[in-house]
Structure formats: structure tokens, C-alpha cells
Protein 1
Amino acid sequence: MDMHTVVDGEGAERGLERVVVGDGRASGVTASDVLAVARGGARVELSGEALAALAAARGIVDALAAKPDPVYGVSTGFGALATRHISQELRTQLQRNIVRSHAAGMGPRVEREVVRALMFLRLKTVCSGHTGVRPEVAQTMADILNAGITPVVHEYGSLGCSGDLAPLSHCALTLMGEGDAEGPDGVVAPAGELLAAHGIEPVELREKEGLALLNGTDGMLGMLIMALADLDRLYTSADITAALSLEALLGTDRVLAPELHAIRPHPGQGDSAANMLAVLAGSELTGHHQDDAPRVQDAYSVRCAPQVAGAGRDTIAHARLVAERELAAAVDNPVVLPDGRVESNGNFHGAPVAYVLDFLAIAVADLASIAERRTDRLLDKNRSHGLPPFLADDAGVDSGLMIAQYTQAALVSELKRLAVPASADSIPSSAMQEDHVSMGWSAARKLRTAVDDLTRVLAVELYTATRGVELREGLTPAPATRAVIAAVREAGVQGPGPDRFLAPDLAAADAFVRDGRLVAAAESVTGPLR
């Protein structure tokens, strides 16, 4: 499907992008399109080519439905009940029933951006010409997205095989005008009322359509795409906070020399070292590791920062490759093939996505762990090379940042638990018909928590490192460091001084990292970082 994002017409007047679903091929979908719809509220439109592809595939399904021979998903039951042939008069009820019965999620609501990504990715596959869904069903899916109606989807209910069944079922239920959904005003109401208020007619599902709306890896893929976008920013942020910690510890930047990283040519490592070197350019604080208390080498948490962050960057690159392949896929079971066959398959298994979701959680935990070790070193007077204990104003009377590091340590400990792979687990379901599952949804949910926790960990390192740099009187930090310190102070994160209520400072530092202001401040001096 050729899909591109543009801004014009009515969308431009309202400041919204417009994502056009194109010619029925899945190869043109990008992560930027998903982010535009999920996070930016972009409008979705179906091109004439997409509508034609939908109609052609639907013609194949209608022809098979008219024949006496049973075809899975068209004229049979589902899963372990696939052996029953369903007569014509019961097929509408069959499709309606699969949505109702599979909308069995429990637990807290899933975030709006996740549901929008899930819905949009399902629409992408529906428009691929491989699902057999009618054009009017696809158009209604787009209309619901454009109206800002978000189905209520729950935390638990997907095993990541046969797709994200329960989450997608809750979305399909809204399409039928049933269940609950959130309106554009953030208020939850019956889905039927919200559709009526926006002039959207509920759909009555026909052969195969209920199954086609449920059978995909869209939830886990959407969360992977959003995590990758967040981690791009966070890994650059980590290079900046590591550079600031190196400065505050009077470390050496000689270990960042390009020729050292060229002889171990992992791309991420070289990029991370280059970022740190750019941030440290012009600093008077580096190169003092052999002054009053000489040390031959900096500690691993400082010296090996590019190696650890770089490995994570390479993990992100691998995960992005998997995401791009999955974006190019049309995941359904059965699928409509161009030669007119409707064939069962196993493409709905979430293993490829689940593995990289878990891999990213491991990388995130390790990046947070090394950041916490640098923070702890800055607070320990025996290892900080001249800084006061806990960076306190009057140590003993003041505790300084002692408990900020406790909070950081608690986050790192949680991240280690979250790094345990969900995809190593499997639990049989559907009377042993679905006897091996990916648990990819669970991997995605814990990765979202891990990304949030990493943001907080880096915020604590930023808070600590900026204070440490400011306490190095008589030495001028790098211009990029000075820009970061000025920006973070303007953002409400206070500098050195007597003890005060720390939680507001930490929250401000968290927001400063989370919304990209940290990277923007450094890049205002360095230019674009890698």
C-alpha cells in the first residue's frame, strides 16, 4: 500500500496532517505515518486505488461464500471450532459473535495513542487487498479515527498469536456501534452514541470481516514503532548526560577519539562516542584525571559509555528493520491471494516483533544501569574527585541528592525485572489449537514502562551532573554543557544550594528530557547529533 503524509486542504486549515492510503500495496507504509495518526491526530483518507483493491478482494470472498464448499473464516467457525460449516443465514451472526465474544479484555485502559496506532495499522492491512473486507468497512474505520473516537481497550487479553485478538476485538466492537469508546473530548460513552453524534453508521459485518478485523500484530507493532521514536531521542539524551557526568568527574575525553572507535567498527558505538565528543568540545573540565589524585583510567561507567549506549543503538537499528518488514506485511488468516485463492497461514504469530521488543527492554535496562552508576559516583566523595558528599551544600546538615539516587536505583531495579523476556513464555489456548503463542503484546506493554523509567533515570543523571559541573569552580565547562545548564535552569530545575523539596525539580528534569528540550539545548551548540 502506497501511503504518504501530506498537509493541505481542510487538514492544513486545522493544522493536521493527512495520511493517504494508496494503491493497495503494503510496501509504502512508514513509521512516520503511524506516528502522525497515533500521536499527531492526522486525518486518514482512502484513495481510489485502495478502494478498488478492497472491492476486488471482496469479490473473491463473495464468490467463495456463494459456493457450498466450506472455507475457513468465510463459511466455518473459528479456531478449535473451525470444523463446523456455517449456513448462509447464520454468517452475519457468526461475524458479529466473534467480535463480541473476543472483546474480553480486562484491566486498565490502554493509552489513546496505542489504540489509534492499533486501529490505523489494522486499516492499513485491511486496505492491502488481502483481507476481503468491503470498502465501506474500511471507510468507517477511517471515519472513526478522523472523528477522534477511541475504543476502550484493556491491558490484558492478547497472547500475541492469532494477533492481538482481544484489543482488536474491542476496536471492532466500536465499529459495530457496541461497547464503550472515548470521544474527542476525552469522555467515555457508549460507542453507538458517539458514532451517531458524528454521523457515522455502524457496520453490519459479513463473511470473513469479523475475523479480518481481529487477526493482526497491530498492537505490538504500533507500540514498537512508538518506542523506537522515543528511544531515538533517549539514546541521544543519554550521550549528553554521560558527557556531562564525564565533565563533572574531571574525566578524559581521549577515550572518545574516532580512531579508537574505528578499530571496533560497531556503528552505534561510533555514533555515541561522536556525540559525547561534540558535547565536550571546548571544555576545561576534561583531561584532569591525572591532577591532584591521579588515575590511570576512568571507571567503566564513564570510559565505556559509548560501548554500552552504542550496543543499544545497534539493537534499535535491528528492531527498526523488523518493524519496517512488519509494516510491509499484510497479516491476516486466512488471506486472499491475487490468484483468487483464500489460504490459511501462520503469519499472525508475533514472534518476530516480540523478540525485538524484549531485546529493546534489555538494552534499556543496561543503559539505565550504567547511567545510575555514574550518578552514584558523582555523589560519593571518595570517587567524585573533589566534589562534596552527595553534592550537598553543607554535608551533614544537608543530605543533597542522596535520595534522588535512591529513586534512580529503584527505577533501575524495576527495569531489570522488566528486561526478563515475555517472548520466552508461551501458554496454550483454544483447546490446544493455538498451542504456542508469542506474548508479544506483553513484551510491548512492559517496554512502554521501561521507556518511561529510562526517561526518569536519565533525568536524575542530568540533575546530578549539572549540579556537579556547577560545583567545579574556576573551570569553564563546554559551550554545549553551558547551554544545557542554562536551558534546564530556565525549565525550573534548580542548581546547587541548601536542601529543598526535590520532587518538583526531578519532575521538571523528567519533562525536560521527555519532550526533547535536552537534545535541543545541546544541539543549539553542537548542531545535529547522531
Protein 2
Amino acid sequence: MRLRRLTAVMLVVVVALFSFVPMSAFPTEVHAGKLFPPHESFTPGTWYLGAQPPNYDPNKPPIVFVQGKGGAANDWYTDTTYYGANDMYESAYKKGYQTVFVQLYDAARQGSKSQYDNGRLLASMLSQIYSRFGKKVNIIAHSKGGPDTQAALVYYGAHQYVGKVVTLGSPHYGSHLADLSYSWWAGWLASLLGQKDDGTYSLQTGQMANFRSATDSNPNVSKNKYYTVAGTSWGPALSALATGGLYLSSHGSNDGLVNEWSTKLNYGVHLFTDGSLDHDSIRMGSRVFSRIEPYLRTSTFSAIKSTKNIANNNEIEKIESANNQVIVGGPLTQNSVSEKSFDVDRLTNATLSVLTATNQTEVTFISPSGKVFTKDNSKVATSQDQDAFRGAYVQTFELKGMEAGKWKVQFKNATKEDAYLFVGTFDDKTPFSLVMPGKAKQDKANFFMKQESDNPNKEVEMMIRVVDEKGNLISETKQTRKLTNGSLEGWLPKVTKSGTYNITIDLKGNNNGHEYTRTLVRSVYIDK
């Protein structure tokens, strides 16, 4: 999965069946040192074969490749985002494997579908592929291709056509970047980018908690063997992956798009975590194939015990994450200057990222003493997001020794309508921690906030906003609470129906006479 190519338009695709021709009818093509399949099709619901290698071993199961969010089958053999050609297909070819490529709905480049929609489509193709070979296949899946694959196997009967599944950087428990995409502050930019779609929505941690709760207790989950792989690099310096990695760092080690803890299944075998792999390079053959290939030589495996008693209970499991961030966002009108403020309570270093829909919006930071920081006089990196906020223009300021007090960030927009999302990440030894279940019954939909500090009984002002699946604000409450021994308990509002709800909590408080601002973002599935 790459969290990319997001658009709000949903396309209804007529699934066409591909007419296969014997592989001997096609020569193997090599372009600029890259191996290409003999034939390609980009219609969702079609599948095609890689060339049969000269050292083809009929005893080895065919490998079906399932790409990630917003991707297409050629993600396995054309250029990656940062590292040139992906040689995964070539790596399998050289080892004598017959390869198969599938096109999910995302291949239409008209938005990403949920794992249920893609899973249903994948299941139909796996049935055809099984009929073609007369034996089970193994699957290598990248990113959201992992949940898509598992939906096909567990819910649509495709477990009978598959032996083993290897997932590479798959968000089995969702991604906090998807939570951010559907948060209160990100709504304006996400809508302007055409970014809210079924695929992004399905990867919120609350939505995936509900998926895990149902999937991990389904008896079909034991009918295949799962292997997982994770990376913990953030990609090239100052890249979009680095921006995502910094945001996700509050939730633990990650590959720039997915946290390591989210890549593992408690009934699967975690093969390895590689600190040199990011979400882009983890799908490259030269980086991982030799390490996963020994597990792909057969489709048979020892029986897996029933998952009835080992499935994660997301109804009671608490997901905890520390936070040193302030987040704000909003619309920008043409020929205008907009301004937001945030409070810093101590001398600190910070990374300040501003995402906009165009590259024409000028960003200025103003310190409490009046110092002005722009891209002309500061250390600023610019890039275009290719993943979670695909198409957004990113300006990242690295500020050292930020003084305590009220800071301002100004946005000057002269060309056309725009929107922004500002994420400031501070070096702070005493972050707030938010503890909230991924899924909860309405009467147990609570959360805890904690902070270690010199004053464990201080007051904090909270603005809590809750939005539903359509982005509608259903609750907005402001309250001042007192931490008791460094923690407090809060309750989410009553909802009218079961579903995933996105929670944004803006905090204001005082530390040794200086005010501070922080933001917490999470999603939760509330079961009525």
C-alpha cells in the first residue's frame, strides 16, 4: 500500500475477463535493464502472467503480487517513488517462479476502494488463477494490499486458492496518517485535494480495529499462513516519507507511512524488521525477496490453531500514543492573508510542516519577540507529497531554539483558492499521552490523557471535536479539567449509529508561567 493517488470520485468499473494466450506467444521484454511482463492490462478485474522463466520450477507455487493503496500491477516492475526500478518481478523470475499480476479497483486511478471491495474483486481473480494452474498460489502483498488480500481470503472464499501470504509494510491495524486525513483540522485540505475516499477511510485505526475484531475471530483466518515484514526508515531526508515518519513517530517506530506495530499479526510469523527499509523500498526485490523466498517454495503449512482465543480484543485493548504536536488547518481565500497562533512553553527545537494544495501560498512564522522566519532566511525543505496527502505542496521548517511564548504562522495566498494543514512537532521530554480503545461499546467509549510533569495536578483546557464518516461535526465541547496525579479520564459523546468517528482534542495549558498548545488525533469505532 502506498497511501497515494487519493480522489473522492468513485468509479463503477465493469469487470472484464482477460483472454489469455500461451506464454510462448510472447517474447520476454527487457527495457533499460528492467524485466517487463509479456503483456499488460490496466482494467480493474483483469490479471496477467509474467513470462515463464527458463529455469521455471513447476513444483514451486505461482506468486501473485498484490499492490497497495492507489497502486497498479506495474508497481512491481516499474519505477518506485524514490529508488528507481522495482526489481521484484525480476527477482522472482530469476528464481524460477511463475508470476501473476492483478488489477484492483485502484488501478483505474480514480480513488481507492475499501478492503472489502478490493477483496471481493481479488477473490474472483484468484478463482480464475487457480483454475488456470490447477493448484494453490502464494501471495506477496504490499501495504494496503495486505488487508485487501485478507478480506479476499476470509470473507469471499479465496482461502481455498491460496497457501501462504507475505505482507510487506501492511497496515493491519491501520495508520494514524489515515486518522489525520479524516481529522477536523485536515478536512479542508483533504477535500480540496480530492483525498477522502473509501480506501483512506478504511485505514483509520478505528475502522481497522473493527476489521480486526471481526476478521481475527473468523475461522477462515486459520486456513492460510501469514508472514509479515516491517521497515523503520523514513526514506530520503526531507522527503514526503520523512514528513510522514516524523508525524507517526509519536506512535512508535515506522516506515514513513505505517507504524511497525501495525504491520504484525498475532497469529502470523513476523520474519523481520529492517531499519534500512521505508514504505517505498520495502517492496523492492533486491531488498527483500531473498529473505522471504524460502517461505514461498511450497504452499503447504502446518495447521494453524483456531484463532478464537488469540484474536486481539479491540473492544478492550487500549491504544496508547505520546504526542508533542500542534495541528491546525483551514481554508485560504484568494488575495488574502490568514493567521493562526500557537503557544510554546519552553525553549525548544521544532519541525514545522505546512501542507497546501498549491505551491503559491507563502508561509511566514513570527516569534513572540517579532523575529520573522520565511523560506528565504530559514532552513526550509520543499517537496510534493506522494502518499498520505498526495499532491500537497509541503514546506518544512527546521527551527532551533524556538523561544517560549505565542507564535504566529501567516499564510499569504494570491493566486487561487487554497487550504492548509500545519503540523508542528516539538522536542519535548514530557509529551501528552492519549489512551483510547480502537473499538468500544458506547457505554465504554472513554479515553485517558496522561502527562508526566512537575505539577501532576495542573489544569488543562480541552476542545474536543468529533466528526462522522462524512466529515460532519457531530460534537464540539470545551471544558477545563484538572489532571489528578498526571492523568484524567474523558468520555466520548453519544452517537446515533455504530461506525468510525474521528476525534480531535486541542489542549491548552500552562507550564511554569508559559502557555502551551497541543493537539491529539485519533479514530475509534463506537458500537451501539
